[in-house]
Amino acid sequence: MNQDTNTAIYTISVAADILGISIHTLRMYEREGLILSYRKKSNQRLYSQKDLERIVCIQKTINEDKINIEGIRRVLALLPCWAIIKCSKKDRENCEFYSSHTKPCWMINHTNNICKDRNCRDCDVYQSFGSCDSIKNKLKDLLT
Amino acid sequence: MNQDTNTAIYTISVAADILGISIHTLRMYEREGLILSYRKKSNQRLYSQKDLERIVCIQKTINEDKINIEGIRRVLALLPCWAIIKCSKKDRENCEFYSSHTKPCWMINHTNNICKDRNCRDCDVYQSFGSCDSIKNKLKDLLT
DNA sequence: GAAAGTTGACATTATCCAATGTTAACTTTT
DNA sequence: AAAAGTTAACATTGGATAATGTCAACTTTC
User: What is the architecture of the domain spanning A1-66?
Assistant: First the structure.
């Protein structure tokens, strides 16, 4: 029985070691809205295998594709979450993200709509970027 | 009777003067796929008022929003042209862009589909970025 | 025919920024 | 109690890159 790739097991220093980067970088990516880490009750970060893959993907985008962090954030901000999780007209009206375009939805505090009780880390929207293929594929799915 | 803002009247040096940038920059933006200039039969570039607005928009995105050129190109590459101009299944199959995600559609040579005879400069897809508001609005229109 | 346009290549410059280091004050884990 | 985690602020560094400049060979406009 394999360990679930979704289970957060690595502490920040272990994750940094595996990835060959510094813990600063991991915290920066999170501060910049590119990743969300799992937090224990004590607020300690933990990373899953899937998290690591996402981070590798981000590194590739920065170092090989040469898109800067602000650019990546804007691309992520284009994910049409409302269509992905199928939120209602009312939900959209109560969503700060729906009329914004500089930050991904998971960087916004949702207090008054369908996302209130959802965990962004587990959400399809956040995970659209996880496998390193373009979010364009997501758009293709959604647009006939 | 006002001059049509779509009419290309400024040569590159005049446009550069008006914008306060060098002609090199204008050519670079074009080489990078951010803009398309009108060309006379002799291949000389001409710019319209609308072109200038688009360029101001690009400058803002680079200098104020701090997205680098590769980032802008990727954002533009996310425009779902197939949904905007409503091309057929066959058109999509014959479209190099549909399965690419690094370049805007207008950077790709269309030889075998609906875009073959279209002028990208006049196309809704290219002009989605013209007014400096996000292409997210375009996605909102398209995704209910 | 002079001025301004074209492409392409190569160089430079000034700025920016991703990544890391360091320190401080504190909390949690082991 | 030591090791490792947390946030926050500030500094540094190395490399990238947006923007210009220049030169060459040529064409078009005026």
Answer: Orthogonal Bundle (1.10)
